[in-house]
């Protein structure tokens, strides 16, 4: 499986069989995105919550092909109300899709659509495919149950926010990685805007001192998991 980082919290997973899964595709209006919305396509779009910097270009990307949204019930219903296909799930639940398994976790945050509809609880998500478990925490503050999440599903790659202000900052993110104990911690949700300016290499240094490997992805970089 491949993982591509578009900056902010936007990632693309491409499975060995070629299924493309986008998570939180915030491209247009994202000053750090290395790509344009037209260059991105998907089979599935997973949304952790409905804030504009996560819902992003999801609908315009979905307009180009047959896309299934995967999100918590209220947000899935919102997608359906706009005319899109969605698979409704909720926190604590997992489902086996053709490409692999998706399970939603808690996240401490909010979730309101750009047009001001309440979109249920925000979430994190674990995507399991091709023998790897990838945990995208969504936007969240630090919570102790990350320890339980890591115990129940050994995490290969943890994608976690470090930008502070709206989410965990570096200090809390280091603790989050220690609790979850992934093989590799990848920082996200930083330096998109001045208010969330943060140094991912400071996170990497501090988390590696604690014995957890970290990788800072360049905006646009794709790696083999
Ligand atoms: Ni948010
Ligand atoms: Mn956000």
Please give a structural write-up.
The chain has 225 residues and is of the alpha/beta class. The strands form two sheets. It has a seven-stranded mixed β-sheet, with helices on one face. It has one domain: Ribonuclease Z/Hydroxyacylglutathione hydrolase-like (Metallo-beta-lactamase, Chain A, 4-Layer Sandwich), CATH 3.60.15. Helices cover 20% and strands 27% of the residues. Helix 4 (146-152) packs parallel to helix 5 (170-180) and helix 5 (170-180) crosses helix 6 (200-209). Helix 5 (170-180) links the parallel strand 11 (157-161) and strand 12 (184-188). The structure holds nickel (II) ion (NI) and manganese (II) ion. Residues 49, 51, 54, 109, 139, 166 line the site of nickel (II) ion.
Briefly note the CATH topology name: Metallo-beta-lactamase, Chain A
Task: Return the CATH architecture.
Answer: 4-Layer Sandwich
Tally of individual helices: 6
Classify the oligomer: single chain
* Approximate shape: globular
* Distinct compounds present: nickel (II) ion, manganese (II) ion
Uncertain segments of ≥5 residues (pLDDT<50)?
none
In CATH, the homologous superfamily goes by the name: Ribonuclease Z/Hydroxyacylglutathione hydrolase-like
Overall average residue pLDDT: 98
Helix-strand string = EEEEHHEHEEEEEHEHEHEE
Return Rg in Å. 16 Å
Biggest sheet, strands in spatial order?
6-5-4-3-2-1-14
What structural class do you assign from the helix and strand content? alpha/beta
Number of DSSP strands? 14
Portion of residues within helices: 10-25%
How much of the residues is beta strand, in percent? 25-35%
CATH class: Alpha Beta
């Amino acid at each position: 499986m491949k993982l591509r980082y578009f900056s902010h919290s936007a990632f693309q997973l491409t499975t060995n069989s070629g299924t493309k899964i986008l998570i939180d595709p915030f491209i247009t209006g994202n000053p750090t995105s290395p790509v344009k919305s037209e260059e991105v396509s998907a089979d599935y779009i997973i949304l952790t919550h409905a804030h504009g910097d996560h819902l992003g270009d999801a609908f315009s990307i979905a307009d180009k092909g047959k896309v299934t949204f995967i999100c918590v019930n209220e947000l899935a219903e919102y997608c359906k109300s706009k005319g899109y296909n969605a698979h409704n799930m909720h926190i604590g639940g997992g489902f086996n899709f053709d490409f692999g398994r998706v399970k939603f976790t808690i996240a401490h945050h909010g979730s309101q659509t750009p047009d001001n509809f309440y979109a249920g609880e925000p979430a994190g998500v674990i995507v399991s495919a091709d023998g790897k478990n990838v945990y995208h925490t969504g936007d969240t503050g630090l919570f102790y149950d990350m320890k339980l999440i890591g115990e129940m599903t050994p995490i290969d790659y943890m994608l976690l926010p470090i930008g502070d202000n709206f989410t965990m900052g570096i200090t809390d993110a280091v603790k989050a990685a220690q609790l979850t104990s992934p093989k590799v911690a990848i920082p996200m949700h930083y330096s998109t805007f001045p208010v969330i300016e943060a140094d991912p290499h400071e996170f990497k240094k501090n988390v590696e001192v604690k014995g957890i490997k970290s990788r800072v992805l360049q905006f646009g970089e794709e790696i083999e998991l």
